[in-house]
Amino acid sequence: MLVLEARDRVGGRIWTHREPGCDAPIELGAEFIDGVTPGIEEAIEGAGIRVAETGGESWTARGGKLTRRDRGGAAVGEIYERLHAAADREPDETLASFLERECGGARFKDAIPHVLAYVRGYHAAHEERIGIQGLVFGDDADDDIQGDVTRRAVDGYERIVRWLHDQLPRGAVRLGEVVREVRWRRGDVVAETQTGVYAAAQVVVTVPLGVLKEGGVVFTPDLAGKREAMERLHMGSVTKLVLRFRTPFWRALDPRLERLGWLSVPEHVFRTWWTPCPSEAPVLVGWVGGPNGGRLAEREDEEVLRQGIEGLAEALGVEEARVREELASWHVHNWERDPYSRGAYSYLGVGGLEAQRELAAPVAGTVFLAGEATDVDGHFSTVHGALASGYRAAREVQEAIGAGRD
Predict the structure, then answer these.
(1) Distance CA 379, CA 35 (A)
(2) How many CA atoms lie within 13 A of 266 on its CB side?
(3) What is the C-alpha separation between 243 and 224, in angstroms, rounded?
(4) What is the pLDDT of residues 202-260, one digit of tens each?
(5) CB within 8 A of 249, min separation 6: which ones?
(6) What is the dihedral of CA 16, 18, 23, 24, to 10 degrees?
């Protein structure tokens, strides 16, 4: 077995950064362990990873005032009830189309922004692209795994990656190998990188959807049907800004922020901030997803920082200079501009459920696909979905090898 990895590290969209003097790991990619799933739990137990449930209080900053986080009330719940009912019918449609058709009028005027904020932020999606059947399927899958249980790897998400890496034979992973082309025929594969050529009987492709859609890897011959399937799947836009401060100065500004966990800022491009609670490390993470994430992805890192500080200062009611004075370090990672990701994680467009199955299907017992975008159980866009898809692809390879021996 041989793993060809384009980056100079393992982990892909899991990327843990560490700084001296900072008690909390800085996660530039995946940060939360959502729900309880077998693959992740095995890694946690096997590696002896310390985990902690996210905590803290949730607040909203709007118009210079701080209030308890507003969930939108009964009208939001009614929208979701209508959404689930519509998703059970055919044909599929975009969320934007559903909202226009089913949720017009004054009753839902204040509730719709809450729904859009969730879809743009949590799913990193555009409402004009995301299909309601895939949206509901994913949310139902979250419920099945106790998705409301959200944890962090106290010592960094990379510990899970490291444990998985250590299960492989020594020397099985080769870093810095950017695969340019995969030439294949039944039972025979050649992968060409910038440094060499590698041959095998089967190949498992775990390239992110964004790279596949943009032709980052050429398949010769082309994978029949996969291109059309990918047109119904989309890659979400996310820009993440991590600010490490000298002190948790926001606690001194307002005693209500003593146990800050989440801060919503609806009037700014950085709508969502969070702390590493229960860790007390003076860190704030800014998150921008969906359409705003796509627009911010076009900006240079310094401009992203400027906008983040501007929004945070406004939310906390202080001058931007005060925020900059407290700033010890900052980190931006723009996953849309990352050449080996070209987006944060996937979501399903109209007809996306069937498209996922088509994308994940093996080709001629030779080419197998894995990665979060190919998880057909509703856990696309997640680490546990990516892990499950890898185990599924491994079983498919074993079945193909067994069939060839019969």
Answers:
(1) 11
(2) 21
(3) 45
(4) 999 999 999 999 999 999 999 978 999 999 999 999 999 999 999 999 999 999 999 99
(5) 282, 322, 326
(6) -20
